[in-house]
Specification:
It comes from Palpitomonas bilix. With 378 residues, the protein is mainly alpha-helical. The protein has two domains: 100-203, Helicase, Ruva Protein, domain 3 (Orthogonal Bundle); 212-376, Ypt/Rab-GAP domain of gyp1p, domain 3 (Cyclin A, domain 1). The protein has 22 helices and two strands.
Amino acid sequence: MESLMIKDATTGKLVPASTLLEQAEEGRRAAVLNGYFGLKREFEASWSEETQKSNENVKQQWEKAGGVDAVFASPKKLKKLIRKGIPNNLRRQVYLRLTGADVTLKERPKAYEKALIDALGSELRTVDLDKCPKFAGVLSFGDHYVRADGQEALSRLLCAVFQRFPECEYAPILLDMAQLFLLHLNENECYHCLAAVIVRAKEDRFFLTTNKTRNILFMETFKDLVREKVSSKLSKHFLTTGTNMSSFASKWFDRMFVGSIPYWSVHRILDTYLNEGNKILYRVGLALLKSCTKQLLSLPHADAIQEEVQAFASTFKRGDILMDDSFSIRNLSRSHFDYLEAKRTGCDMSDSLQDRVRKAAVDEDDFGDHEYKKDASM
């Protein structure tokens, strides 16, 4: 039986109807996967005068340095300029290069489509966000500058990422990171950036926590750093008042400070995160506590302390000042984090993560403030 032939409106030639249908379906999928959902103008319109000046200043610094290609040619210059900030108009280009997504997009252009088809079927059916994998994170769509229909894009991204990386069981930060990416990148580019971040985490455990144990150890190390880098007096005050640092710090770290500090400042954190890893979360958390130590020490109750921490963080308008304070904190090396982690778990520096987990018997209930209290009382 001969297939139905139809005249192609573009070429004028007769082609099988099935071919045109396949092309139409491919075009529909391409339109879906390459859509933009960011409210970039609205985001920039929300900037204060200081933020506008800051963005213009870093823009001039990048131009003076010779542009993106010249900056990436020098890792030292790249680190320095990223710490000063990435101009908003360059974030798409820089994010793709920092993650390596610019390379994977060329090498595996169909990777996202394949992951989506494996997860949702060839029709790319819409999945309710409530039913999507959330990597143990908190979904708060209203905190981001993403169009309402971007919720569908986010649901597809989460399903595709989980399909590709089912072993990534506990990475709550991915939810907000995905929405930050959606402001600057199209959906396909977002997937490649998220995938690149997870792949890097497999080689660098200080880049992203991808399981619950690592997440808990990350938080416990922060408590030690507060005592070392901020104030031992503040650590003891938290203990005396029954203030659990995890109640506010876990929200900071799990959401990359989204909803806790102004949105522009969150972008400054993401800029550095993509180049240096999750150490920037420690830096910002320590800088915030250092800036309000005096106020916190004057408060006699845990509830008042929690409220003051949240209020202080939310009103920290100047992202450039916050980041300068963060980078002024010295001796935050990964080897030191390793030392603190080994000390807390009672392991040797040479022990593997698996050995530390086994020796410490770490779980959410058994690895917490009892260790912190013991250390704080020394």
